[in-house]
């Protein structure tokens, strides 16, 4: 066996050991995560009562054995262990909430002004997974979830100002009780949720300083693109110190937040459910998440919130629950930073959120105030943006024209100095200086336009106003337009054909071809990059919002028209050439920085020449 074979076997061995190690680690992590999820599911699993004890539901009396069984299982709350589930509805113009006496909690929440992508009623909460539950003591060693117990419901009340209220009470054997009071105002997405614990200081351990609120939320599929929905399924929160942060369900299965929290929000692509502490803050939160392998469930969250408990005889903790859209103006009206859940700019481009807040959103809202066709609004918004950047665009075209005039002289310098890039750079700078040309004149305007381009990339996919709004062949501007569904999936592209994306790509190629003379033809990267980028964008943008690709297509089209008009009828290359020749006749005034730069370049060129002479 030769040395190469030995090395090959050793490398295979290392790879095998590495694979086994990583595989075991992944299995351990998977087992650990499954254990966590199983334990959470066990805690939140509704408790059931043996079938024979359900005789109480028929109005008969339980015998002593069954009563003892319930007392052992439910302690002070044995009387609430069984009952008949009854529901009550509170609704206003925008939301319909169904409450149940089992748990004294909302069991379904419908947003009346919205539909799912397939025309079904849009439910923010629906089904047994969704729970809003306070932990109560059964006895010294056992706790229960209020969601598993039957409350006594009071009759719904009609209050002043068309406000509607309902209350649920869970009474312990010693007279202590837990009460939930819900209040819904007209035209509001907010439900006031007050937790009252009366006499609980007598049944809770003396050292207990917190009440535990368990909030489980399941996000069902609402939009056309499940992949995009899951990317936008996040948990956001705001600390007492005004720090906002979030995590995505697909990337984090568990987060423990030890800071005091003002609010916690489960965000979907266009809607959210948020719990807001009105007076005292939540003491902490422990959040577990799960993304089920389901075609209809986007994600699930299990949130445990600690409520500070002062052990008063009549304890109250008021909460506001927001069930509603991710609408910037609506969320901003709370003055709690809730609007930060809308992704208007993040990461290295976080600064573009100010472009959206101060320019894009105000103009968009102004236009939508009197124009109801959002395709036309996008056209006008595009024209407005191009008007703002018009001075930079014109300067860019002038700079391109100057570089085009100088190109023959630059080519002569390349031929003269060949591979001596150092000397070529020095001479090229001299040429630019004598001609009065800024070589970065065409780049800087493009860089100044970048924040607006990135701002639009964040704004359009996040704008709920565009949801299910149609324009031309696009039936929903908030998601991709599709003119053809493919029977197979193309890697890095998808299983559909977006016409706006094709138009955007085609106009990008046209711009690249139109400006081909400005690229360095001797450099393959610079020569072909303008053609490679549109191909890359074709795959990236095929799944993005039709509003965004329509905007980029329209912006490209305007650029092509402007460039043709300006360079054909506004900018005269002959005049520019004459002006450059006049500039060359003027004495060149060098700045100190330029003098030092040229001196350094000359010194480097001399050193290279000396080295060549020695060889």
From TrEMBL:
<comment type="subunit">
    <text>Interacts with the Sec translocase complex via SecD. Specifically interacts with transmembrane segments of nascent integral membrane proteins during membrane integration.</text>
</comment>
<comment type="function">
    <text>Required for the insertion and/or proper folding and/or complex formation of integral membrane proteins into the membrane. Involved in integration of membrane proteins that insert both dependently and independently of the Sec translocase complex, as well as at least some lipoproteins. Aids folding of multispanning membrane proteins.</text>
</comment>
<keyword id="KW-0812">Transmembrane</keyword>
<dbReference type="InterPro" id="IPR047196">
    <property type="entry name" value="YidC_ALB_C"/>
</dbReference>
<dbReference type="Pfam" id="PF14849">
    <property type="entry name" value="YidC_periplas"/>
</dbReference>
<keyword id="KW-0472">Membrane</keyword>
<keyword id="KW-0653">Protein transport</keyword>
<dbReference type="InterPro" id="IPR028055">
    <property type="entry name" value="YidC/Oxa/ALB_C"/>
</dbReference>
<keyword id="KW-1003">Cell membrane</keyword>
<comment type="similarity">
    <text>Belongs to the OXA1/ALB3/YidC family. Type 1 subfamily.</text>
</comment>
<dbReference type="InterPro" id="IPR019998">
    <property type="entry name" value="Membr_insert_YidC"/>
</dbReference>
<dbReference type="InterPro" id="IPR038221">
    <property type="entry name" value="YidC_periplasmic_sf"/>
</dbReference>
<dbReference type="InterPro" id="IPR001708">
    <property type="entry name" value="YidC/ALB3/OXA1/COX18"/>
</dbReference>
<dbReference type="Pfam" id="PF02096">
    <property type="entry name" value="60KD_IMP"/>
</dbReference>
<feature type="domain" description="Membrane insertase YidC/Oxa/ALB C-terminal">
    <location>
        <begin position="374"/>
        <end position="568"/>
    </location>
</feature>
<feature type="transmembrane region" description="Helical">
    <location>
        <begin position="6"/>
        <end position="22"/>
    </location>
</feature>
<keyword id="KW-0143">Chaperone</keyword>
<feature type="transmembrane region" description="Helical">
    <location>
        <begin position="439"/>
        <end position="460"/>
    </location>
</feature>
<feature type="region of interest" description="Disordered">
    <location>
        <begin position="582"/>
        <end position="615"/>
    </location>
</feature>
<protein>
    <recommendedName>
        <fullName>Membrane protein insertase YidC</fullName>
    </recommendedName>
</protein>
<feature type="compositionally biased region" description="Basic and acidic residues">
    <location>
        <begin position="592"/>
        <end position="605"/>
    </location>
</feature>
<dbReference type="InterPro" id="IPR028053">
    <property type="entry name" value="Membr_insert_YidC_N"/>
</dbReference>
<dbReference type="GO" id="GO:0015031">
    <property type="term" value="P:protein transport"/>
</dbReference>
<keyword id="KW-1133">Transmembrane helix</keyword>
<feature type="transmembrane region" description="Helical">
    <location>
        <begin position="496"/>
        <end position="514"/>
    </location>
</feature>
<dbReference type="GO" id="GO:0005886">
    <property type="term" value="C:plasma membrane"/>
</dbReference>
<keyword id="KW-0813">Transport</keyword>
<feature type="domain" description="Membrane insertase YidC N-terminal">
    <location>
        <begin position="89"/>
        <end position="351"/>
    </location>
</feature>
<feature type="compositionally biased region" description="Polar residues">
    <location>
        <begin position="606"/>
        <end position="615"/>
    </location>
</feature>
<dbReference type="GO" id="GO:0051205">
    <property type="term" value="P:protein insertion into membrane"/>
</dbReference>
<dbReference type="GO" id="GO:0032977">
    <property type="term" value="F:membrane insertase activity"/>
</dbReference>
<feature type="transmembrane region" description="Helical">
    <location>
        <begin position="373"/>
        <end position="394"/>
    </location>
</feature>
